[in-house]
Design goal:
Layout (H helix, E strand, L loop, with lengths): L2 E4 L1 H9 L8 H4 L3 E5 H13 L3 H14 L1 E3 L3 H18 L7 H13 L3 E2 L3 H4 L9 E2 L4
Parallel strand pairs: 1-2, 1-4, 2-3, 4-5
Helix pairs in contact: 3-4, 3-6, 5-6
Length: 138
């Protein structure tokens, strides 16, 4: 499958028309883009709390129409739990503040496709479990 999971940070670059998005265009070209439900949640919350939300709403609706959203399932929940346990064992960090990253990483692992992110350090801890990370810096 020629697909990738797109992390929230890269999607927000695109929605805002940020200069940083140009760095990712090569990684996204000709790929099926999948969004974790956690990314949709983060972006929807961002819109609800941002005073410029109406400026981005049309672009957001276009994204939702052309990108696939991967929703939760029993197997995704089990995978996310295993990532949370790994996080606790590896870093001693409580998963509470990392759940969005855990869900996004679990989505990529569940689908067997790479994750495109600007926050490599946030996901590096899951590489040992098979997560493939793509970024302009990798």
């Amino acid at each position: 499958m020629n697909a990738i999971v797109l992390d929230t940070d890269v999607l927000s670059f695109m929605l805002r028309g940020a200069n940083g998005f140009a760095n990712f265009e090569g990684l996204l070209k000709d790929k099926k883009i999948v969004l974790s439900f956690a990314t949709v949640l983060e972006i929807e919350f961002w819109f609800a709390s941002d005073e410029k939300r109406h400026q981005f709403l049309a672009t957001w609706k276009e994204c939702l129409a052309k990108y696939e959203v991967h929703h939760s399932s029993t197997s995704l929940i089990h995978r996310a739990v295993s990532l949370a346990i790994h996080l606790v064992e590896k870093t001693g960090s409580k998963p509470r503040k990392h759940w969005s990253d855990i869900w996004i990483a679990a989505t990529a692992l569940e689908l067997g496709i790479p994750l495109v992110t600007n926050n490599v350090k946030d996901f590096k801890k899951f590489e040992a479990l098979g997560l493939q990370i793509l970024s302009p810096e990798t």
